[in-house]
Design goal:
Helix content: 25-40%
GO molecular function: endopeptidase activity; serine-type peptidase activity
Structural class: alpha+beta
CATH superfamily of the largest domain: 2-enoyl-CoA Hydratase, Chain A, domain 1
Radius of gyration: 30 Å
Organism: Chitinophaga niastensis
InterPro entries: ClpP/crotonase-like_dom_sf (IPR029045), CtpA/B_N (IPR055210), PDZ (IPR001478), PDZ_sf (IPR036034), Peptidase_S41A (IPR004447), Tail-specific_protease (IPR005151)
Number of domains: 4
Pfam family, one: PDZ_2
Distance between the termini: 91 Å
Low-confidence stretches: 26-39
Number of strands: 21
Keywords: Hydrolase, Protease, Serine protease
CATH topology of the largest domain: 2-enoyl-CoA Hydratase, Chain A, domain 1
Amino acid sequence: MSNRKLNVFLPLLFAVVLALGMFLGHKMPGSNNGGATVFFTKPAKGPLQEVMDLIKAKYVDSLNTDELQQEAIEGMLAHLDPHSIYIPPAQLQQVNEDMDGNFEGIGVEFNITADTVNVISVLSGGPSETAGVQSGDKILKVNDSLVAGNGITPEKIRKLLRGPAGSMVNATILRQQKKVQIPIKRGVIPLYSVDASYMAAPGVGYIKISKFSATTYDEFMKAIRGLERQGMQKLVIDLRQNPGGYLDAATRIADELIDDQKLILYTKGKDFPRTDYKTKRPGMFEKGALAILTDEGSASASEILAGAVQDWDRGTIIGRRTFGKGLVQEQYDLDNGGALRLTVARYYIPSGRSIQKPYGKGHGDYDEDIVERYHHGEMVNKDSIKITDTVPYTTAAGRRVYGGGGITPDIFIPFDTARFSPTLTAIYTRNAFGNFAYKYYTSHKDAFKQYKNAADFTKQFQPGNELISEFKTYAKTDSVPGLDRLNAHDESEIRVRLKAMLARQLWRTEGFYETINADDPMVKKALEVVEKDAPLK
């Protein structure tokens, strides 16, 4: 281009650049605050960060600013709902492991009594069993760290035993008064969420789900297939004391129970558009009689599953009113290694009801709700249940149901308040059942070899007077009161619970539930209901 032509276009080029600069300047932060526009500015700090910076730089004494920040975060969250929480970095790994359904370690269950780490049970097929660790062993040292008689805590021993899969743990074990050195190669240890699955009666399967983790659906499907091979035609699902977990796990299980193209739930929030979750494909158990067991500890994902079954009249809900958590959280990782679990939406079950109980009176009032239910009489009398949402909803068959505070069961089973006797309360709080069962089992191992499985044990083993007398002697040394004047109920409870804890020593949670459920009124009622298989009205 010639100089003459360039001179013609230069004024036009400057005009375009000037106009573009004015436009961009108008759009930049700070352009309307009366000051000059600066093209490259840092975003303004909020007052919270300003205060933190000033405290770090100017405060008269040294402070742990991490603790200050945690308290500030928790203070903000206290003004939100009770389920928006901050997870500190030190707790995040354990929280994630619990929800992921596995961790990396050696595969033993232990307890600590009198500063001694006792191996309660060894995971079948896990690293410790492969290495030769046995129930009844006492762990004295982990690598070079002495753990016996050293003020050891469960958290400390877990840190010593857990580590990357493939790494080694050199454990010093005390077995029958002899020290044994056992090298153990760590592996991936499953954290099961299906605690038990067995045939509770001819043709009736039972599945206990303790939480909804990343592995729950696969565990549930494995249990269903196993029970169907044993002739299952009817099913009882136990969700008592299940605090919930992953939404996906609950909806996938619901899809196995409810036929196709039915709404399971929908979610929506201020910045969270409505999302529908529907059944998508033929399920494994869409036709047989179904009962769901719930109580005041059944929350969140448990309530989604129970609510969908109730709203579609697919089965019978048996037990007590559920917790009442109808909020959806998403977890956001933070730069400090912690996480924020923030409520982003509410969920609504097929009838359109929200089952979230009120929380407007503060977290303290919310946390005391279960205690208030007990004092109000709701645990023993269905007519005492407070309905906070008086707008009625209807199930697919036209039955009236209510929201605003959990799922109210179709069949109510009262709480056994007699279990709060001073003697039983002392036994439970001291873990006397578990500690004694471990001690008794390890000194009578050969006597238990005659039982092939939990079903065989449940039918044949009876806690005799000699066992009960030995337990009383043990419990007295732990300052349990009233053992010489037990009433009939307390004595019966002791026999039932001891039998179940001994079954747990042999077959872990599977054995515990198969044994304890034989005398459980809620399970008995569920078996009666599914065997009748009468339609709900």
